[in-house]
Amino acid sequence: MDILLDNPLTNLYGPYFLILYGFTTLFTILFFGLFRSRLDQSDRLPLPSIPSDIDPYEIAYLRGGVNEMARTAVFSLHRKGLLELKKDGKRPIITRTSVSQWRGMATVEDAALNWFVVSREPKAVFASGGLTEVLEPYADEYLRRLGRQQLIAGTEMQKRLSAWRLPAYAVILALGGYKAFASIVHGYFNLLGILGIAIIGVIAVYYIGRLPWLTKLGKAYLDRLRTAFEKLRYLNEAEKPGMAGQQTPAAVGGPAFDPMLLSVGIFGSGVLVGTAYGAHDDIFAKSRKENGTADGGSGGCGSACSAGGSSCSSGGSSCSSSGCSSGCGGGGGCGGGGCGGS
Amino acid sequence: MVEEAAADPKNRMEGAAKKQIKSAGVGIGYREPFRSDLFLHRSQVDFLEITSDHYLDANPRKLEELKLLMDHFPLIPHSLDLSLGSAEGVDREYLEKLAALVDMVQPVWFSDHICFTRSGGAKIGHLAPVPYTREALKVFVRNIREVKDRIKTPLILENITYMMRFPSSEMTEAEFIGRLLDETDCGLLLDVTNLYINSRNFGFDWRRFLDALPMERVVQLHFVGSHAHGGGLIDAHADATQDEIWDVFREVCLRTNIKGAILERDENFPDFTELLGELRIAREIMRSARVNGKAGRP
After folding, report:
1. Is the dihedral of CA B62, B67, B72, B75 positive or negative?
2. Would you call B68 and A227 a contact, using CB atoms and an 8 Å cutoff?
3. Is the ipTM above a cut-off of 0.95?
């Protein structure tokens, strides 16, 4: 027992121990950070081609998980004239219109429309039992596919990182805790230095241990999509009030999907600001504030934040679970052209 | 020198090469404003013609754009400034950059113009015609030989519009082009709009012009509407293709098997679906000419 409390480490002069502890913590953080950066080797893979039958919902999911899928679905139903945004007093609500059918709707849209059997508040979309839960089965398919393509950080990558996070915590806390314990036993109670270094170390490991939603390849692919479809970011400016419900595409020889829907899928609902659908972005931004959820930040993001869900810490699988849906998966609030906001 | 070039086996590739080149279909001259529409309607555009000069000193953004296009469309580089008619020869630096681009893009052919754009070491800023003389022919053959020595991908040459004709010319334009193609074994990028404009501005029959051309050398077509200006027509790349130009297009397709056709539009952009409509017409004319041996009106 004596050797545990009376050895070169426990007897090390306080300031010297702090230097040793500081370097040990720093080394642990650097080692862990290096491991994380090497974990994502996806940038060695070739960039996937953009499919000619591109799925706006898959891109929305890639950008920010199931929350972005839900926002995109609500927008699409609104644009098709199947949903309308109203005010109940000061509260915004989303309600079905008298239009009951739309030929050629995506299965995601069918499922979303069925959820709006009663009028809903925007924040309910992301709450427990909300639209995001309804869309989970579709999101899971995207999760598997995008994970296989290494475009999003899958559960395997997260597990491997987590396996190294615990040892990193252990090194920092065990060394500091041991010295603190020995100091207390010897009657020294000035532990602020140890405490400070331990707190900084733990916080650093915690943040480094959060994988971004998108892998390096996923970020490059999303950038490629934004380059390819850059004009769609401005397409919406041509949309005049009163056009809600009018689809432009296939009937007049256009693509098989609505370019505006693709625009929202790629850039987020921020592109709708200033259009006939500007209210769409507005109501979700407001509900985010009411919920106090973490995936928003419309003021601070936009085109500069290209990584989509970069602030969505837990990445793939945990983010797609319903329990996380209101606080994550929202693309970190960034959609390139705008912030989602739940 | 002309004879030497024609006799050199390594330069004798175009005649046989045309038969081997797989049909590229119908495409459009790539311009940045088209980018999103191209990806929205990818299945309706068979290939793109890029302006080589835009990518010779590409910044990272242009390079990224080039990679994006390469990954999704067959590309044909079309350069503006090789200046094959310059007596002083081809600019080596430009040629090296073009070679690097062609090497990167790996096209089935690349193209430039039957003109000169540099004189006395200075760029003159437009495609200038040459007098149709034996001396000019020798210059072209010498320069094209140098290009073909450096770039092994087949080179095809485009006819241009001109606002004047040289009294010193020793042969007609069609004869000049025919001899040039024979002696360099290059293919022809026949701009049917340029042909129509020249025929109207100088009052000749474009059918007779075609009679004098080695039609088997025509690899690719350019088309777009002509633009009335100052009592004549100019090649502004700003108008929809008119019926008269479709007539030239159709006649060429009837006379030979075209490997590809490109719509060149640089200004006054309409809705992209209108451009796709023009591609559909061109495709239908080519298909009809190939299948039935005659081109019906779409």
Report:
1. positive
2. yes
3. no
